[in-house]
Design goal:
Elements: H1 2-30, E1 42-48, E2 52-54, E3 58-67, E4 79-85, E5 91-98, E6 103-109, E7 117-124, E8 135-142, E9 159-164, E10 175-182, E11 192-197, E12 202-207, E13 213-218, E14 226-232, E15 235-240, E16 249-256, E17 259-266, E18 273-280, E19 283-291, E20 293-299, E21 306-314, E22 317-326, E23 339-342, E24 346-353, E25 357-365, H2 376-383, H3 391-394, H4 400-408, E26 431-439, E27 450-455, E28 458-466, E29 472-477, E30 485-490, E31 498-502, H5 522-540, E32 561-564, H6 574-581, E33 585-587, E34 596-598, E35 614-617, E36 620-621, H7 624-628, E37 635-647, E38 650-660, E39 673-676, E40 680-681, E41 686-687, E42 703-712, E43 715-722, E44 728-738, E45 743-753
Parallel strand pairs: 2-8, 5-40, 23-45, 35-38
Antiparallel strand pairs: 1-3, 3-6, 4-5, 4-7, 7-8, 9-10, 10-13, 11-12, 11-14, 14-15, 16-17, 17-20, 18-19, 18-21, 21-22, 24-43, 25-42, 25-44, 26-29, 26-31, 27-28, 27-30, 30-39, 32-37, 33-34, 35-36, 37-38, 41-42, 44-45
């Protein structure tokens, strides 16, 4: 039990350290402008083996937890929570994965009960819940065995929005305006028309691109109004543009050669002095003073790569802002020649990653448009910071102009205020069970009560603490030991006037995410049929990669004596068993009395401290009555420790631990609060090799390789895999974070062709 004592010591020490750290963060953030807070937070990115699955397949995922400030992998949290939600944001499957230095991986099987539709993968750490943060990614799951009835969109007219660069349409100065046409799920729509003034004069001819955007510049006149006149098969449509502002400021950002020109125009005060605040992520990079009608020149190389925001401030009030991208738009897609391989060929290739990095590797078939893919670079730099993600609209090879137009239409994620206190500590090395102990009648907090957690079938993983003045408690457990059921129990009162309210490690409620209509044309249906047949064949030949050890052995408590009942005469009752076999424990012969009296060793005669005896049945806290009512024929052995048993400042006068043959006798005992633990995964690898002369198993794998935790030393990364009998376009994807905290994302494509006879 030295391990458990160590947990308690480090747990409370960690609480003091984290409290100090959090106070420091609050002090730092209060000294910064609200526009660019420098917070200590964790962020998550999840790499998925596929964004498009059918039931019966397995979704593999690799999680990266990194510091929002430095971008480097975080070692603060040791558990990552994964929830799979349906279209109504209700959980349909969940798991948790163990993290080693900010990285972990796992998998979820997609059962045949799932309906065709949109699903959402969300991920977060316990620490992130303090800030309301999470990662989100939408995926599609198809069930070819159930009829799909898509919900049609009644709105056929595209949504039209107008965005003035820099926030306002300022009269009598040059402005840039983006017109965006989109459908009900924010996909871009192509429309044609013209912008006219109230006299019908044409200001600009309009034709939106595939992202739904069209940009133009003009000088709006004071007291003038403007409209978009668009043409369609159903006729003409008029949309009013926003009116001009006579007391506003705006800023334009224009790229020229190796510089950016930030143009400020204002009709508020001619002699006003504005402050230009330039931010990257949570950091303020530069500050400038700017006049009402001024231009500021900034070299591209003086700014970090990625998403930049310029805020225009006057008297501590933000008038407008402008988001732009500094750097190239290469999100890691290989532009080289696409090689071809044959079916069932062993392939050895390389992908260049210049710096040492922790990466995941996937090799899978491309069966939908790759424009729906996102990677860690685009997510971390774009989607994670914007209110409405743009990566899905951009695709893998966007132009500078398309991205800039979309950024003018975008808003930054609103800055969430830091909480004054944190209620959830991160799981650092150990899992946490947190809750409150209350009076069952009036919900009054119960303070200074000893409370503990025990796990079914696990004898040596128990933890105790005392509730604080508000009835709160934090207990630790080893999430690396397989278990599903535990018990939270007050030791001094096994049942009665107390109730235990546990904190849910998962979010109780999620936001309503955007869904899209799934279009199943004849080509798509043909792909699904082939894929479904291949999946059924693979499942028929599936071999489990692990076997459960059914010969679980209990650890004997250190210093205890173990009585294996098969070595003795079996008595008719457990009471008689203790009386006749176990001298360390006294028990009344009266069958109406349920009590044990431990004959202690190593306790001074003058020691008047009293404490209960710790009673365990198959690892779970129980009462004397629970043990004495057992049938002795169900009991395998009894362990007895007749010495003081310490958990930090909490101790017991000995331990009695009873083990049954089935190791589950305590699962139906109602003492305390039962808790069901989510399975903790610690990695899932997938890959296969084929000996064409001996292997007669069919191979219709769409996922050829999943290697979630690769420590790359830098340079050419070697990747080895075997193609299956599935032909078509495949992709190799390498994602992760390098030693400097910079996201790594590389994508490479190849074809698999039939073997020529």
């Amino acid at each position: 039990m030295q391990i458990i004592w160590y947990i308690k010591k480090t747990g409370f020490l960690g609480l003091r350290i984290l409290t100090y750290l959090f106070i420091s963060v609050l002090l730092i953030s209060r000294g910064e402008q609200a526009y660019c807070q420098n917070n200590v937070r964790e962020s998550v990115y999840i790499q998925l083996s596929s964004n498009d699955l059918i039931v019966g397949e397995t979704l593999y995922f690799s999680g990266y937890v990194y510091s929002e400030t430095t971008g480097k992998l975080s070692s603060l949290s040791s558990l990552l929570y994964i929830d799979l939600l349906d279209e109504n944001s209700k959980s349909v499957a969940r798991t948790q994965i163990s993290l080693e230095d900010g990285h972990g991986s796992g998998k979820l099987y997609i059962p045949t009960e799932f309906e065709t539709g949109n699903y959402h993968v969300v991920a977060y750490t316990r620490w992130m819940k303090n800030f309301g943060d999470l990662f989100h990614k939408r995926i599609t799951i198809i069930n070819p065995y159930k009829t799909y009835y898509p919900v049609s969109n009644n709105s056929k007219q595209p949504k039209i929005d107008f965005f003035a660069e820099g926030g306002h349409l300022v009269s009598d100065v040059k402005n840039k305006v983006i017109i965006r046409a989109s459908d009900h799920v924010d996909n871009g729509k192509v429309i044609r028309g013209r912008v006219i003034d109230k006299s019908g004069n044409t200001i600009a001819q309009v034709e939106t691109d595939s992202s739904g955007c069209f940009g133009f510049t003009f000088i709006p006149k004071r007291n003038e109004s403007y409209q978009l006149l668009s043409e369609s098969k159903s006729g003409f449509r008029f949309n009013d543009m926003p009116g001009t502002c006579d007391e506003c400021a705006r800023l334009l950002v224009e790229k020229k050669a190796s510089n950016y020109i930030i143009d400020v125009k204002s009709n508020i005060k001619k002699d006003a002095q504005y402050e230009l605040l330039i931010c990257h992520k949570q950091d303020t990079i530069k500050r400038f003073l700017a006049g009402s009608n001024s231009e500021t020149l900034i070299a591209k190389n003086d700014l970090p790569k990625g998403l930049i925001t310029v805020h225009l401030i006057l008297n501590d009030v933000e008038y407008c802002n402008r988001i732009f991208w500094n750097g190239n738009l290469d999100f890691g897609v290989s532009k080289g020649d696409v090689k071809s391989y044959t079916q069932l060929e062993n392939v050895s290739t390389t992908v260049f990653v210049d710096k040492p990095a922790n990466v995941s590797i996937s090799v899978s078939k491309v069966y939908t448009s790759t424009n729906s893919e996102i990677n860690i670079i685009s997510y971390e730099e774009l989607d994670a910071q914007l209110e409405t993600p743009v990566t899905r609209i951009l695709g893998n090879s966007p132009s500078d102009q398309v991205l800039d137009n979309l950024l003018i239409c975008s808003k930054l994620q609103p800055t969430k205020p830091l909480p004054k206190t944190v209620t959830l500590l991160p799981e650092y090395r150990y899992g946490i069970v947190q809750g409150n102990l209350l009076n069952v009648e009036d919900d009054r907090p119960i303070s200074n009560e000893v409370i503990g957690v025990s796990l079914l079938g696990i004898n040596d993983n128990i933890s105790f603490t005392q509730t604080d003045s508000m009835g709160r408690f934090i207990l630790m457990y080893d999430y690396n030991i397989p278990h599903s059921l535990g018990s939270i129990t007050t030791i001094n009162e096994m049942a009665g006037s107390n109730k235990i309210v546990l904190e849910n490690p998962f979010y109780d409620k999620y936001p309503q995410f955007t869904n899209t209509i799934i279009q199943l044309d004849s080509s798509k249906v043909h792909q699904i049929v082939k894929r479904s047949i291949a999946n059924q064949v693979q499942n028929a030949y599936y071999l489990s990669d692990s076997t459960k050890n059914t010969q679980d052995k209990y650890e004997v408590l250190s210093g205890s004596r173990s009585y294996v009942l098969s070595n003795y005469t079996r008595f008719q009752t457990i009471r008689d068993t203790f009386i006749e076999i176990i001298p360390e424990v006294g028990v009344s012969k009266n069958e109406q009395k349920f009590d044990f009296r431990m004959r202690m060793e190593g306790v001074d005669f003058n020691d008047k401290q009293t404490a209960p005896t710790l009673l365990l049945l198959d690892g779970i806290f129980v009462s004397a009555k629970d043990i004495l009512e057992l049938s002795p024929y169900t009991v395998e052995r009894i362990d007895v420790l007749n010495r003081r048993y310490y958990f930090g400042g909490i101790f017991f006068n000995g331990v009695i631990s009873v083990h049954t043959f089935k190791k589950d006798a305590s699962k139906n005992i109602s003492n305390g609060e039962q808790v069901r633990f989510t399975e903790t995964q610690n990695g899932s690898f997938f890959g296969f090799k084929v000996n064409q002369t001996l292997d007669r198993i069919p191979h219709y794998e769409y996922l050829l390789l999943w290697q979630p935790n690769v420590e790359h030393t830098g340079g050419e990364l070697k990747i080895n895999f075997t193609t299956s009998e599935v032909t078509g376009l495949f992709q190799i994807k390498v994602e992760g974070i390098d030693v400097n905290g910079v996201p790594v994302s590389k994508t490479k494509y190849f074809y698999v062709e039939p073997v020529k006879n």
